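Rotation project, supervised by the postdoc (A.L.). Task for the rotation student: set up a whole-complex structure prediction and record inputs and outputs verbatim in this book. Inputs entered:
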Amino acid sequence: GAVVSQHPSWVICKSGTSVKIECRSLDFQATTMFWYRQFPKQSLMLMATSNEGSKATYEQGVEKDKFLINHASLTLSTLTVTSAHPEDSSFYICSARGGGQTGYTFGSGTRLTVV
Amino acid sequence: QKEVEQDPGPLSVPEGAIVSLNCTYSNSAFQYFMWYRQYSRKGPELLMYTYSSGNKEDGRFTAQVDKSSKYISLFIRDSQPSDSATYLCAMSAGGSYIPTFGRGTSLIVHP
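Outputs recorded:
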């Protein structure tokens, strides 16, 4: 079945630094990938839709200059949290649709802690 | 009112019990219904995917959709400790539409 790999699985960074999270579709091409944020005991909050070769579409309330998304190839999308602050600490998950799979395939998530 | 309502639990059951997980929704345009299982600190994995009303069975799991009541359920038979996870319902108006997720129900199956 379709596999989405997300890296790193966890990261700790200092306030003010930037962190890049990678999301790869391993065995299929994904023209569209999605980035979610999840707080403890809360649902997945869609942050943005990442389109290969074009600008990402951000959901209302999500700062596009803070959460930079790049989808340079059909198998890779990256999310960069710029000038991270403690309130950016969260669980970030990417997903993609394709590879013959119904529904959406999710990456394993990245737990970001900003200290 | 949120588009998708799901009781966060936790729901604690003994091993071997039948588990019933539910979601209600308000958008009558939803046609596709999904259940995801999410283990702690992992991404969600798709369990069941159904279209429109009716039942769908896969091993110990049965998904049920009642569009007239805007109510969906996931039943787990002979529950196991390994079923302990958070179960998220999701639904969309079309197969290519981005799904709307419930907040998830935490299930604990104790030996």
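Student's summary: The interface with chain A takes residues 6, 8, 34, 36, 41-46, 49, 88, 90, 95-96, 98-99, 101-104, 106 of chain B (CB under 8 Å).
Supervisor addendum: The longest strand of chain B covers residues 85-92.
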